[in-house]
Amino acid sequence: MSNLLSYKNYSGTVEYSKEDNCLFGKVIGIKSLLSYEGESIQELEADFRSVIDEYLSDCADRGVAPEQAYKGTFNVRISPELHRALATLALSRGKSLNSAVEEALQLYVS
Q: What is the dihedral angle through the alpha carbons of 19, 27, 31, 10, rounded to the nearest 10 degrees?
């Protein structure tokens, strides 16, 4: 994922608009729409950081907690057969289903 920007635990996309001849992107992993743009990578990165800082400042001013991207929980829909097989395997290894799935996902991304 080298085409993502990262700042203060937020990530954002990097895209190019041929029509507007500029770079643009949006913060991913949160419901709020935070977008940024620039004519160069340096401008894009600076606007990305500025948008994050403004968002965090606005949240503080309003007394609300900022959204956190990727809290560590998500729902996954799988077949009942795979669910049963995973739960049985985890139990046989003395693990919880969550820890077995986390281990499998860690292997997948490494």
A: 180
